Structure formats: C-alpha cells, structure tokens
Amino acid sequence: MNETTVRFFHDIAARIGYARVTELHLFPVIRQSGIESGLAVVAALPESAPSDNTTPKDAIPEGAMPEDATLERPVVELQVTEVPAPEVLERHVVYTARYRNTLKGPDRGKWEVDVTAEADAPLVTIDEVVRGVVRRSGDELHPERISGDQFREIAPSPTASPSEPSPTDAGSPPASTAPSDTPQPGTVPA
Q1: If you write DSSP's letter for every residue of 43-58 in order, what string do you get?
Q2: Which helix H or strand E contains 150, and what residues bound it?
Q3: Quick check: 45 and 22 in contact, CB under 8 A?
Q4: Do strands 111-122 and 91-102 pair parallel, antiparallel, or not at all (unpaired)?
Q5: Domain spans, the chain
C-alpha cells in the first residue's frame, strides 16, 4: 500500500471509527488530468444504540394508575419445544468512501475525502453488490477486499502504541541525539 492509500484509510477511520470497520473493498485508483481519485466500499458495524432503561411502570404517565396498583401478572407455565432459529445475518452499515488528490496544477496538494453512509446490509449482500458493480463497469481490474484486521494493520490508529519493534528497528543501535564527529553528507566540517 502506498502513502495515499494509508492516508485514505486514516481518513475513513477518523469518520467511521477503527474498531467498527469490518471489511473494505478498495477499487483501483484512477489518475486523469493531474487528479488521482479513489473509491472504497466500507462495511462497518453499526454504532451502539443507546440503552432504554425505562421500565413498564416508568412508561405509564403519572396519575394514570392508582398508587397501590401493581404491574405483576400471574405466572403461567408453558411447555416449550426447541425450534432451531433461522440464521440471523448481522447487518453492517455500508459506506461509500471517495478521495480526490490533486497532483498537478494550481490546486496541487488539495486533498478531499467524502464518506457517506448508503445502506445497511449483511456482508454477503455487500459482496454481491460489489461484484455487480464490477460486472456492469466492464473493468478487468477488481477491487481488493481488505478485512477489518488488515485495515487496522495498514493504517494503525495514531493512538495505538506498537506492541513490538518493527523488523527494521531490530538489531540497529538506538539513535543518538549527541552531535557526531563524522561530517554528514552535504555539510561543511567545523
């Protein structure tokens, strides 16, 4: 993944949340007339709904029921036969994420990102929709499917601390902040 893709992923995570991203379908980048643009379809877990802490008695308006009344019902014993529950497919919020990076011209360096919630659907449906888009577009290049874990590896949260040193750090001496007696390239020795 290049720097632009990582930047795009960070912007997606800032708008949706790192932990919520379940999978992402990254379409090939288009470069045209000095502008690079990218598109991703993101499946994310829905935001937690606020809990409803009202009890049935709280739901009854004051004065609608006498003080000494209760909401208790008689206990009825039922014989329950186990019926296999139909498979419930977890629904995900489907986002369309787009970026536009101006590479040339007077607006060079301009970066725009748009992340829009489009629908909610199970992952199976999202995969089918992405395949349909590719089929209708006629492009030979297919989007890259990236899992939520891969997404978090590619663009780790800025607040996350690395769990272990990277392979490039292993075995190399710690960087010194003391001035060196060896002249550095491009400098004049004192």
Answers
A1: EEPPPPPPP----HHH
A2: helix 148-154
A3: yes
A4: antiparallel
A5: 1-43+90-154
Q: What is the dihedral of CA 178, 184, 189, 190, to 10 degrees?
A: -20
* CB contact at 8 A, 115 and 16: yes
Q: Could you tell me if 21 and 53 are in contact, meaning their C-beta atoms sit under 8 angstroms apart?
A: no
Burial profile 114-132: b = 16 or more Cβ within 10 angstroms, e = fewer: ebeeeeebeeebbbebbee
pLDDT digits (tens, 9 = 90+) for 81-123: 565 555 567 899 999 999 999 999 999 999 999 999 999 999 8
Taking alpha carbons only, the member of 115, 119, 139, 114 closest to residue 129 is 119
- CA dist 141 → 8, 26, 99 (Å): 20, 11, 19
Distance CA 130, CA 125 (A): 9
Residues 37, 110: Cα–Cα separation, whole Å: 12
Tell me the pLDDT tens digit for each residue of 121-159: 998 888 888 888 888 887 777 899 999 999 999 988 877
Which position has the token pair 């990102």? 113
Measured distance CA(126)–CA(124) in Å, rounded: 5
pTM for this predicted structure? 0.63
Across the chain, where does the E strand assignment appear? 21-26, 30-32, 35-44, 91-102, 111-122, 144-147
